[in-house]
Amino acid sequence: MNKVALAALITLIGGVTAAAHHSLSGIYDTGTSVSFEGVIREFHFVNPHPYLTVEVRPNGRTQRWKMELDNRGELAAIGMTDITFKIGDQITVSGNPGLAGARVLYVRKLERLKDRFWYEQDDTTPSMGFSKP
Questions:
Q1: Which tens digits make up the pLDDT trace of 97-107?
Q2: Could you identify which of 27, 94, 96, 97 might form a hypothetical disulfide with 106, taking C-beta atoms 3.0 to 4.6 angstroms apart as the criterion?
Q3: CATH (domain of 102)
Q4: Residue 92 sits in which domain range?
Q5: Per-residue pLDDT tens digits for 10-45
Q6: What is the distance between the alpha carbons of residues 4 and 23, in angstroms, rounded to a whole number?
Q7: Mean pLDDT for the chain?
Q8: Cα–Cα distance measured from residue 53 to residue 104, given in angstroms and rounded to the nearest whole number
Q9: Is residue 7 part of a domain?
Q10: Is 59 part of any domain?
C-alpha cells in the first residue's frame, strides 16, 4: 500500500471513530426530553465530558442518575470549573434520557435553585450565567 493510500485510510478510520464518539443518538433518546428536580451527589469535571450524579425521586422512589454535560474544554472556556457544583446543590434539570431505560441524561438545561445559576446546551454551544431575581 502506498503512503497516500495509507494516509487516506488512517484519516477515514479516525473520522469514523470521532463521529461515533460524538453521536448523542447512540446513547441518548434525542427525540425525547425529560425533567427532574434533584440533589447533586457528585460532580466530576473530567475529560472528555464532565458529569453529575444526581439523586432524583420520580414517582416517589429515590434514584441516582448520571447526567452528562458538554465537553470539558468548551465548559472551561465559558467559565465552568471543578467547583461550579457542590454536593447538596438542589437543581432542576432537563435533557435527553438514555436509551433502553438507562438512568443517564444528556443535560440540555439546568438551574441551581439557591442562586439561580443556569446552564444550557443549545445544539453545540454551551452557555451559563445567573438569572436576575
A1: 999 889 999 99
A2: 96
A3: 2.40.50.140
A4: 27-130
A5: 443 443 333 344 578 889 999 999 999 999 999 999
A6: 29
A7: 86
A8: 9
A9: no
A10: yes
Q: How far from 12 is each of 48, 91, 131, 132, CA to CA, in Å?
A: 22, 42, 44, 48
Specify the pTM.
Answer: 0.81
The three cell numbers of residue 39 are 440533589
Closest CA to 70 of 42, 46, 94, 104: 46
d(CA 113, CA 57): 17
**Tally of structural domains, the chain:** 1
**Residue 52, strand partner residues:** 43, 67
Q: Going along 23-131, which residue ranges are E strands?
A: 34-44, 51-56, 63-68, 90-97, 104-112, 117-122, 125-130
| The residue type at 54 | V
Place of cell 472528555: 48
Residue 33 is assigned to a structural domain of this protein: yes
Strand 51-56 with 63-68, pairing: antiparallel
Instruction: Classify residue 4: in a domain, yes or no.
Output: no
